[in-house]
Design brief:
The complex is a heterodimer of chains A (968) and B (155). Chain A is an alpha/beta fold and 968 residues long. Chain A has 5 domains: 115 residues, Ubiquitin-like (UB roll) (Roll), CATH 3.10.20.740; 151 residues, Alpha-Beta Plaits (2-Layer Sandwich), CATH 3.30.70.20; 248 residues, 3-Layer(aba) Sandwich (Rossmann fold), CATH 3.40.50; 185 residues, Dimethylsulfoxide Reductase, domain 2, CATH 3.40.228; 129 residues, Beta Barrel (Barwin-like endoglucanases), CATH 2.40.40.20. Chain A contains 29 helices and 38 strands. Chain A is globular and about 95 Å long. The model of chain A has no long low-confidence stretch (mean pLDDT 93). Chain B is of the alpha+beta class. Chain B has 2 domains: 57 residues, no CATH class; 79 residues, Glutaredoxin, CATH 3.40.30. Chain B has 7 helices and 4 strands. The model of chain B has no long low-confidence stretch (mean pLDDT 92). The chains are: A alpha/beta (968), B alpha+beta (155). At the A-B interface, strand 8, strand 20 and strand 21 of A face helix 4 of B. Chain A: It comes from Aquicoccus porphyridii. Chain A: It holds the Pfam family Molybdop_Fe4S4. Chain A: Keywords: 2Fe-2S, 4Fe-4S, Iron, Iron-sulfur, Metal-binding, Oxidoreductase, Repeat.
């Protein structure tokens, strides 16, 4: 195993600046740094570390510890180097005898109120206070207790006179880290990290002087009850053992670290996996990671315990019928059982009777192999992926308008934006690290427009307030987006020069005529959308005239019957206002899963080979036919919903489903269950016996992201390396298992074996066959850290911004966006609209996060309902309620809140015992079949507990999960 | 002790000062002037109006010793404990006064007449020891003067 060498991970003391170069002299060395840089950082650039405690480069300088004092020729006194900006010609001395003495005196005061239990302290070896005591040469603490009284301090629980009223016990309410006030030096780094980096403002310094303490929330709060979101920024910033990971307390300090990529959301944060042997001690956000810039959220930072959870299945299992218990078998037996069954099904029911579902959680290399399995071994195009149920409309919509199926910017772009539209996304919960970067920009003065049925946290939370919140009725996105365009066109706020040079002017004329029609005016659509017309007009004017305008959107846009139309409407808005092709602007889909972009790039869709090239094109097929030595079927294959329909009809019989739980995540659970039950060979390849596995005949245990090499591609098209830090507990990485399954089938049919020995070989094959990946190699990723596709001869360093000089398709294309109401309508029986989403602490179907301590924040799905609707139904906070739609019903507890509008209810889908998707319908996007999760007509009524369906389901799941003891 | 003050009254006070630059301290002073303390119920209302977190509010209130979370007695007697006053018998005077009333610092006499608080310098070092009753400062305190003072405020 080759560890990735971390280039430069030093703490530079204060944040980097941009500006004109300034040259100064520090300890006799000339240093040139950007204007505005601190003397401390300039010294660090020259390799000189000025002692410091309260400064760290993730937060602005504070100047409180007085350890970093220096002498500057021509200036009086000893200024703190962290708060003093450089000036041309400045001559600085960082180590004069005067400042040495001051530092030693300061350190002596600090240590007089700090316990000297370094050897047994959890930060031993990883403590800046310890390091600084060494750096200043502290040899003695001369402060002694006055006669007859103890020395005033914060760290002794009891002293000679009895209880020490200054002593506070450890707060270990947070499941992942502890707060030990006795170790605190009140440097405020945690408070500042919470404010500046995370933007939650959950911490403060209470009291003053010697009474000052770090406090989470108010006096009656502990860390768990406070506003803390457990992002870990404070723990990261703390120089002592005051805020410390519980895993470090338990295991000790790590001995090495490996840079890898988080396997949760589409932000794709870079982390250092800090290890002791093959034990993971902690995950620490990596400062050089270009997506997260050293920040993290509770999931990536702490919620990795699922990798060693007792529920994880480590041996392959098979069974003849889904009513049988599972039987643990050898890999050989499981794979030949699967291969024989699949080949038999193809012989009996035809070549196209089986297919695959690729995973947005697995690596690019693994996804590539799974689609290759169906195209080169099954010899059909029956491949689809979970992107079908989330961002397939993004692929279609942006492909049609701009010419490529991806976001236009990098995440750094948000630092240059002036007006942001967030539509159908809840970044503080779904994409927390991006949300923190967005909030930082908003606090610096950028304006925000939120278009969402719910009052999400971004609408108003500490120091962030949306200029406009357009609380639209679920299902009316197209009408609202078109109304925004109506205002921009009729009030002539569009960017004519941009449109004339970059877009097709004739198409614009036709589009302008369409949107200018009075029936698209905000006043005309107000009744339908429930968005006040005046507010919508103001929002449109702000976006068109407020400077750099960026649009960020999520599944609230795509998961509708008109998802693709809304995506095109969003692209129209960006083109109308000239907000494409430079930093601070653009159209940015917030991808749900770590590798949903990558799984789409890798040819997971039934009509597209890798690189979004249609399977009907002979020249594209030829590339892969030559590479794989097979003939590729020119007919597109089945999408997930078509597979399930065909299964119910009896023509689709076998499925290899990698790392996706379609039973829980796909809409209309009963239909999915019927489809799966009708198949004769369902192979589930996963970490856990998920809900889909209840209907499986073969279970292949999967490996976690910690156990394999590969790449993930995040929402900004960034290809990030995933590095193996421990051996797979199940024996094989997922790509090896797919290869073994392919070879088992090829053995049956007599084909040549696949012979990959490392994922880098798979990436080489991807690069050789896919133009947008042509320049990507593992060597290059190791060198650069990451790269954004397209990466090829034209863009050897990748492409942070797309469509800079012209659109990928040439001229940007305006597409008419007619609003068509969904067929899912409210009525007397189902008067409310249900919309679904996620919370911060849980992820997707919860298979991972439910198996971590994250459940303390969200132990069950609840139904958010407006007080008015609750009162009508006699419902109180915490009551069991029945949630029923035309598809099905479930029961859960009510949470009465004004976050949702009257007439709208909201829940999450993280828990299988609730199964929100038993309620959702099978309506879907007209272009891509992306299910309409976000709009379901429902009724809510009082209930006594779980529904009959939930009880049946739980019983069936229990039966289906029986495992026979292994045969001797 | 007291019923919590009406929400509308708190909101009216907040609104009256909200437009100021740096409105938090004026709001807190106005609340304390009106209710003789900062009512707990005001916390969420202030946070909502100024869009700050409850931690930030707690940080500010706890920084200033004069903001109270419960009303004081009818009179507040502050005795200076800074160096100059200590040097001329301030410490002894303070201890004697507390002992006489049977109180600790911040305590209030049983009838609610007077609350005793420490203060660190009233700017009267030239005529130490110093004390302050409500808004009135008194120099050259001694036992007798203190006794008269206490009687006057009904302690």
């Amino acid at each position: 195993m080759k560890d990735f060498i971390i280039p430069d991970d030093r703490d530079m003391g204060t944040p980097a600046r941009e500006g004109a170069p300034v040259t100064l002299t520090i300890d006799g060395f000339d240093v040139t740094v950007p204007e505005g840089t601190s003397v401390m950082r300039a010294a660090a650039e020259a390799g000189i570390s000025v002692p410091k405690l309260c400064a760290t480069d993730s937060v602005e300088a504070f100047g409180s510890c007085r350890l970093c004092v220096v002498e500057i020729e021509g200036r009086r006194g000893t200024p703190s180097s962290c708060t003093t900006p450089v000036a041309p010609g400045m001559v600085v001395h960082t180590g004069s005898s005067k400042v040495r003495k001051i530092r030693r005196g300061v350190m002596e005061l600090y240590i007089s109120d700090h316990p000297l239990d370094c050897l047994t302290c959890s930060a031993n070896g990883d403590c800046e206070l310890q390091d600084m005591a060494g750096a200043v040469g502290l040899r003695d603490v001369r402060y002694t207790a006055p006669e007859g009284a103890p020395l005033d301090n914060h760290f002794e629980a009891r002293d000679t006179s009895g209880e020490n009223h200054r002593y506070l016990p450890k707060d270990d309410s947070n499941p992942y880290f502890t707060y030990d006030p006795s170790k605190c030096i009140v440097c405020s780094r945690c408070v500042r990290a919470c404010e500046e980096v995370q933007g939650t403002f959950a911490l403060t310094i209470e009291g003053r002087g010697f009474d000052s303490r770090v406090s989470a929330g108010n006096i009656f709060d502990d860390f768990l009850s406070s506003d803390c979101v457990s992002c870990g920024a404070c723990v990261q910033a703390c120089p002592t053992a005051t805020l410390q990971e519980k895993s470090v307390i338990e295991l000790g300090t790590p001995e090495r670290s490996v840079v890898t990529t988080c396997a949760y959301c589409g932000v794709g944060c870079s982390f250092k996996a800090e290890m002791q042997g093959d034990t993971l001690v902690r995950m620490v956000p990596w400062k050089q990671g270009k997506a997260n810039r050293g920040h993290s959220c509770v999931k990536g930072r702490f919620a990795y315990g699922y990798a060693h959870h007792q529920d994880r299945i480590l041996n392959p299992m098979i069974r003849d019928r889904i009513t049988d218990p599972w039987r643990e078998v050898s890999w050989d037996e499981a794979l030949s059982f699967a291969a024989t069954r699949l080949r038999a099904l193809q012989e009996k029911h035809g070549q196209k009777s089986i297919g695959v579902i690729t995973s947005s959680r697995c690596t690019n290399e693994e996804t590539y192999l799974v689609q290759k399995l169906t195209r080169a071994v099954f010899m059909n195009n029956n491949t689809d992926t979970c992107a079908r149920v989330c961002h397939s409309p993004t692929g279609y919509g942006l492909g049609q308008t701009f010419g490529t199926s991806a976001g236009t910017q990098d995440f750094d772009s948000v630092e240059k934006t002036d007006v942001v539209i967030v539509i159908g996304a809840n970044p503080t919960d779904g994409h927390p690290v991006f949300a923190s970067r967005l909030k930082k920009r908003l606090r610096a003065g950028a304006k925000l427009i939120v278009i969402d049925p719910r009052r999400i946290d971004l609408v108003k939370s500490a120091h962030v307030e949306a200029a406009h919140h357009l609380p639209l009725r679920p299902g009316t996105n197209v009408a609202v987006v078109t109304a925004l365009a109506h205002v921009i066109v009729t009030e002539k706020l569009y960017d004519e020069e941009f449109i004339r040079t970059r877009c097709d002017w004739d198409e614009f004329q036709a589009y302008a005529e369409f949107v200018a029609d009075p029936r698209h005016s905000p006043e005309a659509t107000e009744e339908l959308t429930r968005v006040p017309a005046a507010d919508l007009r103001e929002a449109a004017r702000l976006f068109a005239t407020g400077g750099n305008g960026a649009i960020y959107y999520g599944l609230g846009v795509t998961e509708h019957s008109q998802g693709s139309t809304t995506v095109m409407g969003i692209a129209n808005l960006a083109m109308l206002t000239g907000n494409i092709g430079r930093p601070g602007v653009g159209v940015n889909p917030l991808r749900g899963q770590n590798n949903v972009q990558g799984s789409c790039d890798m040819g997971s869709f039934p009509h597209e080979l890798p690189g979004y090239r249609h399977v009907k094109l002979p020249e594209v097929r030829k590339i892969f036919e030559d590479a794989w030595g097979v003939t590729i079927d020119p007919e597109p294959g089945l999408r997930i919903p078509n597979m399930l329909d065909a299964a119910v009809d009896g023509t689709f019989k076998g499925l290899y489903c990698q790392g996706e739980d379609i039973l829980q995540s796909d809409p209309d659970t009963k239909h999915v269950a019927a489809g799966l039950a009708a198949m004769e060979c369902v192979i589930v390849h996963d970490l856990f016996l998920n809900e889909t596995a209840n209907y499986a005949h073969v279970f292949l245990p999967g490996s976690t992201f910690l156990e394999k090499d590969g790449t993930f591609t995040n929402a900004e098209r960034r290809i990030n390396r995933v590095r193996k830090v421990m051996a797979p507990l199940n024996g094989y990485a997922d790509w090896e298992i797919t290869q073994m399954l392919a070879n088992a089938m090829l053995k049956e049919s007599g084909g040549a074996n696949w012979t990959y020995t490392h994922p880098s070989q798979i990436m080489d094959e991807i690069a050789a066959t896919t133009p947008s990946f042509a320049g990507v190699t593992y060597g290059m990723l190791d060198e650069k850290g990451s790269v954004q596709w397209p990466c090829n001869e034209d863009h050897p360093d990748g492409t942070p911004l797309m469509h800079v000089d012209e659109f990928m398709r040439g001229k940007g294309r305006f597409i008419v966006t007619e609003y068509v109401a969904t067929d899912e309508k409210t009525g007397p029986r189902f008067p409310l609209l249900l919309t679904t989403g996620r919370v911060l602490s849980q992820y997707n179907v919860g298979a991972q996060t439910r198996r971590t301590a994250n459940s303390v924040w969200h132990g069950e799905d609840v139904l958010e309902i407006h007080p008015h609707d609750a009162e009508n139904r006699g419902l109180n906070e915490g009551d069991w309620v029945k949630l029923a739609s035309r598809s099905g019903e479930t029961a859960l507890r009510a949470h009465v809140t004004e976050r949702v509008a009257p007439g709208v209810v909201y829940t999450t889908f993280h828990h299988p015992d609730t199964q929100a998707n038993v309620v959702t319908t099978d309506f879907s996007d007209w272009a891509t079949n992306c299910p309409e999760y976000k709009v379901t007509a429902v009724q809510v009524s009082a209930s006594n507990g779980p529904s009959e369906w939930q009880e049946d389901y739980a019983a069936q799941a229990e039966m289906a999960r029986r495992i026979l003891p292994a045969a001797e | 002790m007291t019923n919590s003050p009406p929400t509308d009254e708190i909101i009216a006070i907040i609104d009256a000062h909200k437009a100021l630059e740096g409105p938090l301290l004026p709001i807190l002073h106005a609340l304390q002037d009106t209710f003789d303390h900062i009512p707990q119920a005001a916390g969420p209302l202030i946070c909502d109006a100024l869009n700050i977190s409850r931690a930030e509010l707690h940080g500010v209130i706890s920084f200033y010793h004069d903001f109270r979370d419960a009303p004081a007695g009818r009179h507040v007697l502050k005795i200076c404990r800074a160096e100059a006053c200590q040097a001329v018998g301030g410490k002894a005077l303070a201890e004697e006064t507390l002992a006489k009333l049977g109180l600790d610092w911040h305590g209030t006499t049983p009838g609610g007449a007077v609350t005793i608080e420490p203060v660190y310098c009233l700017g009267l070092c030239a005529c130490a020891p110093a004390a302050m009753v409500d808004d009135r400062v008194i120099g050259r305190m001694d036992s007798a003067k203190m006794q008269t003072l206490l009687e006057k405020v009904g302690a």
